[in-house]
């Protein structure tokens, strides 16, 4: 089958520092890199590297950054005919500071991503029939994401939403359009309006989000694994062991792998294992898209940790 991804494309400007800067602090970076990124593009590459046919719909500016991003996506086998080159805007960027311990801070400039709207939905619609899932994130306007979810629902396609970054107000109607919701701890706290301090809190949080109208909720907890609400079941899955180099795109790796496994008609259990393994592999490497695992590396990892 195939997966559709509707979302952002950014060029990541990556700086490495001893620690994350405090307010007013100036730090020297040991390295500077430009790396293809954006949550939509990352999730597209994550699934494509696992052997899945992926259609990405989004926008870039008519500039060198946009050309660089599209070329990188084509090199990874992502179908890019749904990407619009917008002459009225610059390509989106993300300024990412990565500390030596792997933690990161990200500042986004949406650029063309902020103009995604009705015309992009029309380019998405013909790609939905026959797709197994639509992957969504929130680095594009919220209303555009909701409209894309409605189009997927009309086409009988499952919607997997990574609510990142979580909006200050999340429309109640959106929950009912989502089949699988995958917030991280910070995003879940924003959506719920309460802290999550433990795995028990995460399990209850996943249940509370599910009760808003979502079929399945996977609350990702970094090195503490995932809390899953599926039907009447609540489960905590521990993370696979990994040496952390850079946590950028760990969630994108998880979502892309989850969707790729389901696209191959693997079981829900196997899909969760793929997601956890992809996340563990991604954090062990630097960069966003460069850190995303291939199918061979993911299967080797799973066999080694079976």
Rg calc: 18 Å
| Count of DSSP-assigned helices | 10
Overall body shape: globular
Pattern of helices and strands: EEEHEHEEEHEHEHEHHEEEHHH
Biggest sheet statistics: 9 strands, mixed
CATH topology: UDP-N-acetylmuramoyl-L-alanine:D-glutamate ligase
| Oligomer description | single chain
In total, the number of domains comes to 1
Separation of the first and last Cα atoms: 27 Å
Percent of residues in helices: 25-40%
- With strands numbered from the N-terminus, the spatial order across the biggest sheet is 5-4-1-8-9-10-11-12-13
- CATH homologous superfamily label: Ribokinase
Number of strands: 13
Please give the CATH class: Alpha Beta
Strand content: 15-25%
Q: Structural class, please?
A: alpha/beta
In short:
With 306 residues, the chain is of the alpha/beta class. The protein is built from 10 helices and 13 strands.
What does this entry look like structurally?
This protein has 306 residues and is an alpha/beta fold. It has one domain: Ribokinase (UDP-N-acetylmuramoyl-L-alanine:D-glutamate ligase), CATH 3.40.1190.20. The chain has helices at 39-48, 64-75, 118-124, 142-154, 172-175, 185-192, 199-210, 250-263, 268-283, 295-304; strands spanning 3-6, 10-17, 31-37, 54-61, 79-86, 92-99, 104-109, 133-136, 158-161, 180-181, 216-220, 226-230, 233-237. It has a nine-stranded mixed sheet, sandwiched between helices. The longest helix has 16 residues, at 268-283.
């Amino acid at each position: 089958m195939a997966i559709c991804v509707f979302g952002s494309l950014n060029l990541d400007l990556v700086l490495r520092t001893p620690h994350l800067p405090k307010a007013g602090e100036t730090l020297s970076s040991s390295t500077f890199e430009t790396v293809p990124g954006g949550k939509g593009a990352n999730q597209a590459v994550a699934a494509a590297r696992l052997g899945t046919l992926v259609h990405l719909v989004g926008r870039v500016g008519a500039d060198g950054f946009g050309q660089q991003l599209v070329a990188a996506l084509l090199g990874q086998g992502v179908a890019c005919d749904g990407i619009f080159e917008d002459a009225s805007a610059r390509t989106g960027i993300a300024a990412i500071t990565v500390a030596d311990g792997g933690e990161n801070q990200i500042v986004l400039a949406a650029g063309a991503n902020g103009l995604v709207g009705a015309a992009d939905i029309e380019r998405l619609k013909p790609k939905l029939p026959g797709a197994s899932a639509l992957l969504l994130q929130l680095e594009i306007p919220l209303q555009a994401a909701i409209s894309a979810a409605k189009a997927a629902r009309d086409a009988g396609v499952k919607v997997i939403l990574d609510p990142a970054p979580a909006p200050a107000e999340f429309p109640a109607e959106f929950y009912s359009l989502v089949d699988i919701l995958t917030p991280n701890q910070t995003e879940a706290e924003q959506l719920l309006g309460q802290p999550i301090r433990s795995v028990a809190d995460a399990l209850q949080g996943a249940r509370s989000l599910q009760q808003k109208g979502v079929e399945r909720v996977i609350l990702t907890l970094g090195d503490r694994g995932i809390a899953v609400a599926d039907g009447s079941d609540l489960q905590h899955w521990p993370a696979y062991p990994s040496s952390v180099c850079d946590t950028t795109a760990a969630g994108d790796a998880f979502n892309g792998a989850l969707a790729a496994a389901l696209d191959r008609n693997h079981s829900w259990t196997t899909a969760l294992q793929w997601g956890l393994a992809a996340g563990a592999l991604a954090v062990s490497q630097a960069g966003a898209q460069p850190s995303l695992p291939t199918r061979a590396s993911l299967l080797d990892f799973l066999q080694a940790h079976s």
